[in-house]
């Protein structure tokens, strides 16, 4: 029996993982990505064991390991004094995860390219860049999509993997009004050679303050220091990864932090400062409509406090490919996928929210008492979870 033709909208981490899982199962897959080219975008990314298990099932774990560094510890410290509030300093800057059971950190762009290359090894023409979805409609026989570049495409089913501001989502369920959390993520990535004197405290350290936190960790063989600050503010509200910020804006927030934090900011490259206002959305009651369903941020946007946004999208990709293989009828497959994934992702959305609250302690010494951390989230295996 010929396998279904599957149209994936958005070739980010979720779309690329799904494409790889489907191609490995013999489906006819096309990925329509709005970006004009696939280039390394983004900053540091957390890969807990539940992400590593998906990479193992997709046959690419060794490649992921080679561009990851394992977390051998890590300290949450008082924002001014550097006193340890929770954890132990991580002295290993370059060690690789030895097994899939170890959490790693890497560069989002590097994982994205790795996934896209694995897709192209099976189907060199599967990725179509420069295709931004404009609209789609369902016919008796399938779906027809129209792109901003004027092209049209047909398939049996459509999977919207087009991220936080998903067009597929809007077409299926209308516009949703998100709620501003009052927190802005402040990001910079610094070549480590520029900031050697300010790296005391090991590879992974999170400075917890009353109205802001500042996490920094080393990636890519300790050549890059990824920094993500979370700051309470109502001064600025634009969502999205690529909004420019400045050294002055960072120092306004972090000027009274530990001298290592101030040193990092003062020595970061001029054009490396970004900010991203965090919005929250309630979990959806359903992700599927007719011949279309949603995956990753398009279905369940995650606040980044537990670093599970990419991982849940990657898990979705493997579970949905397994469902489509197991249930030849797409509506049964979508129902099984939602049953397997909606409760878990809603629980992680709530846990991420709770961690955001814990990080906003007026008294940083209370952080360790309030935070529940990742708990048992990392034990999930998308390759064997019931579907
Ligand atoms: C540029 C960028 C950088 C990021 N950097 C980080 C980071 O450093 N650390 C981190 O933890 N998280 C980062 N994220 C978020 C994280 O990658 C996502 O939360 C996670 O990967 C969820 O995966 P996803 O596939 O659902 O969404 P995404 O990874 O966001 O992928 C969505 C994809 O859909 C494409 N797209 C959007 N609209 C359309 C459309 N209408 N038609 C066709 N294609 C469309 C986008 O270009 C993108 O490639 C970043 C996201 C982006 C887009």
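^ Assign residues to that structure.
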């Amino acid at each position: 029996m010929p396998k279904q033709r599957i149209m994936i909208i958005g070739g980010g981490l979720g779309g690329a993982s799904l494409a790889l899982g489907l191609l490995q199962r013999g489906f006819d897959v096309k990925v329509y990505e709005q970006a004009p080219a696939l280039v390394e975008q983004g900053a540091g990314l957390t890969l807990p064991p539940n992400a590593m298990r998906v990479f193992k099932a997709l046959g690419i774990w060794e490649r992921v390991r080679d561009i990851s560094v394992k977390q051998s510890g890590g300290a949450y410290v008082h924002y001014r004094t550097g006193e340890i509030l929770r954890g132990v300093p991580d002295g290993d800057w370059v060690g690789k995860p030895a097994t899939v059971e170890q959490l790693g950190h890497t560069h989002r762009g590097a994982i994205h390219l790795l996934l896209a290359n694995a897709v192209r090894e099976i189907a060199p023409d599967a990725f179509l860049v420069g295709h931004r979805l404009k609209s789609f409609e369902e016919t008796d026989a399938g779906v027809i999509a129209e792109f901003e570049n004027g092209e049209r495409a047909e398939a049996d089913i459509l999977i919207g993997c087009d991220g936080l501001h998903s067009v597929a989502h809007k077409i299926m369920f209308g516009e949703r009004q998100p709620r501003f959390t009052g927190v802005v993520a402040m990001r910079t990535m610094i070549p480590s050679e520029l900031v050697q004197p300010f790296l005391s405290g090991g590879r992974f350290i999170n400075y917890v303050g009353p109205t802001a936190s500042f996490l920094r960790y080393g990636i890519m063989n300790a050549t890059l220091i990824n920094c993500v600050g979370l700051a309470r503010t109502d001064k600025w509200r634009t969502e999205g990864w690529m909004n420019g910020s400045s050294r002055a804006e960072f120092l306004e927030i972090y000027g009274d932090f530990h001298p290592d934090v101030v040193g990092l900011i003062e020595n970061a490259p001029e054009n490396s400062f970004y900010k991203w206002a965090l919005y929250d959305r309630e979990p959806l009651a359903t992700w599927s409509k007719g011949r279309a369903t949603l995956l990753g941020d398009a279905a369940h946007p995650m606040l980044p406090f537990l670093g599970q946004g990419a991982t849940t999208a990657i898990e979705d990709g493997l579970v949905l490919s397994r469902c489509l293989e197991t249930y030849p009828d797409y509506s049964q497959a979508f129902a099984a996928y939602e049953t397997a994934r909606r409760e878990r992702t809603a629980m992680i959305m709530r846990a991420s929210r709770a961690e955001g609250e814990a990080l906003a302690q007026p008294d940083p010494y209370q952080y360790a008492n309030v935070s529940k951390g990742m708990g048992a989230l990392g034990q999930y295996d998308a390759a064997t979870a019931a579907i």
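The chain has a mean pLDDT of 93.
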